[in-house]
Design goal:
alpha+beta, three-stranded mixed beta sheet, 307 residues, 17 strands, 8 helices, Adenine-n6-DNA-methyltransferase TaqI, Chain A, domain 2, globular, four-stranded antiparallel beta sheet
């Protein structure tokens, strides 16, 4: 199948955002929706209709942004690069965006899914000392495949359905987690209160606890190159092994951080309350395999504890 090869700048008008002066009260709390990357990060679907802050007509005219028509594709170009949404109403954005107003030959839904699936490629184009940003000039030159519009709509519809299936699966997993927790509490009581008076132990009394490898760019001339698990691979109660990285390490490091089936991996979390304590059991599906330093490995003494 041969599709026309073009660039993003040829199939859409690219619009940069801006922020009105924060100390001019008349610029704010008006009728115009004004999106930030944070607004996109909170979305569960692909459409955005409301924003946490709004601006006035005077605020819009006072800064170098413009109102995006409905069915534009909002794309965050910094902090972070790659958040995407389609607006359902006229909307402005802050300076963290390079948004797309599709031309007639481009379907907004198709562009949305293309940007989502090529997020890493677009992130790699960013540069900057404080934080990475991808410029309008760079975005406009990004190569882009352009199927006929009817084919774009067909592809987007398939991806919409696939996304809905994934969303329902996630809801099912959440309900399953809630059910399992309720069964656990019914059988064993609340662990925080220990209202069943079970004997209490420190984890270090029930098995071996081990930190992982420090991952740095200076690891050269090591003896081994092996796959390793990161925080991104450990979800709550399950593993995601879609992307596995490799690391150079020494034989002693390998012996110290080698994973065995039944090991429990616990996310250290860097102080992020949403990450701290995420845990899953290693299934041994990659062997040998080691783990990075932000994952803590607990290996149970099988005579005292079941993983």
């Amino acid at each position: 199948m041969s599709w026309k090869q073009t660039t993003l700048g040829e199939v859409a008008d690219i619009v940069s955002g801006a922020t009105p002066k924060s100390d001019v009260l008349s610029y704010w709390d008006g009728p115009i929706a004004w999106a930030t990357p944070t607004d996109l990060s909170r979305l569960s679907g692909k459409h955005i209709s409301t924003t946490s802050r709004t601006i006035s007509e005077a605020g819009l005219n006072a800064c170098s942004t413009r109102l995006l028509p409905p069915d534009s594709v909002l794309f965050s170009s910094r902090a972070p690069i790659g958040l995407v949404a389609i607006n359902t109403r006229p909307m402005a954005t802050n300076q963290g965006f390079k948004s797309f107003v599709p031309k007639p030959e481009l379907n907004a839904d198709f562009l949305f899914w293309w940007l989502k699936s090529n997020r890493k490629q677009l992130d790699d184009l960013g540069n900057g000392a404080t934080f990475k940003e991808v410029s309008k000039a760079v975005v406009s030159r990004v190569p882009f495949p352009l199927p006929p519009v009817h084919e774009q709509r067909r592809i987007a519809a398939i991806l919409d359905k696939a996304h809905e299936i994934c969303r329902k699966r996630e809801q099912t997993l959440t309900l399953s987690d809630d059910f399992l927790r309720s069964v656990f509490l019914e059988m064993f009581g609340d662990p925080a209160r220990n209202d069943r008076s079970w004997p209490e132990f420190l984890l270090e009394d029930l098995g071996d606890i081990q930190g992982g490898l420090q991952v740095t760019s200076k690891r050269i001339s090591m003896e081994l190159t092996l796959p390793y698990l990161r925080v991104a691979n450990v979800y709550r109660d399950r593993l995601n092994l879609d992307e596995i990285k490799e690391i150079n390490l020494s034989e002693p490091e390998f012996q110290r951080t080698r994973l065995e089936p039944g090991d429990i991996l616990i996310v250290e979390g860097h102080g992020n309350p949403e990450e701290i304590g995420r845990a899953a059991i290693w299934d041994g599906s990659i062997n040998p395999c080691v783990h990075q330093n932000h994952l803590i490995r607990f290996r149970a003494n099988r005579k005292r504890a079941c993983p």
